[in-house]
Amino acid sequence: MRIVGVYGAAGHGREVMGMLPKAADTNYVFIDDDCGLAKVNDYPCLSWVEFKRTAASAKHVILAIGDGKVRERLSLKCKEAGIGFMPAHAQSAVILSDVRLGEGSVLCPYSMITCNVTIGRQFHANYFSHVSHDCRIGDFVTLAPGARCNGNVVIEDHAYIGSSAVLRQGRPGDPLVIGAGAIVGMGAVVTQSVPAGATVVGNPARLMEPK
């Protein structure tokens, strides 16, 4: 019997667990060191140490954590333990042609990736989010519910695209770029490239000045 652990028993983790197709030869559990409960939504909730100690024919992890920096840290911890990752793609998620997805991707219900798209490790596309043609997306990137990434856009590592945000379409050879670690606020309409580490909000999106 193999075991699949959904890392994170908070809201997003419960959503991810709920969308997984269940298999008779697999035990599904939550992994959460801060949960404090024996079960969550009728699934066992184990600490990381308990998960590692559990006997199984194979072990896989799904990182159901919204924060890309935390996903990166947990990814390293899993690799150090020799535990691999399983993608979690909802049945209603759509992937069209020539899409390359890195390890550990999570595609929630009604998300879509169209064609000629390259995506790095531990990508999260939440409900109703969309990535259009000819986009390049880095590692540990998160699209919140309803985020819209139009064609010819580059999203660098650890960027976060907020709920219902819209990224304007770029041009071949001249993409719209969302820099590494940038945050696009919910509902923002991004018409220009965003520098690394910046936060933009509004319509049209503007840099948020530090307080």
From TrEMBL:
<dbReference type="Pfam" id="PF17836">
    <property type="entry name" value="PglD_N"/>
</dbReference>
<feature type="domain" description="PglD N-terminal">
    <location>
        <begin position="6"/>
        <end position="74"/>
    </location>
</feature>
<dbReference type="InterPro" id="IPR020019">
    <property type="entry name" value="AcTrfase_PglD-like"/>
</dbReference>
<comment type="similarity">
    <text>Belongs to the transferase hexapeptide repeat family.</text>
</comment>
<dbReference type="InterPro" id="IPR011004">
    <property type="entry name" value="Trimer_LpxA-like_sf"/>
</dbReference>
<protein>
    <submittedName>
        <fullName>Acetyltransferase</fullName>
    </submittedName>
</protein>
<dbReference type="InterPro" id="IPR050179">
    <property type="entry name" value="Trans_hexapeptide_repeat"/>
</dbReference>
<dbReference type="InterPro" id="IPR041561">
    <property type="entry name" value="PglD_N"/>
</dbReference>
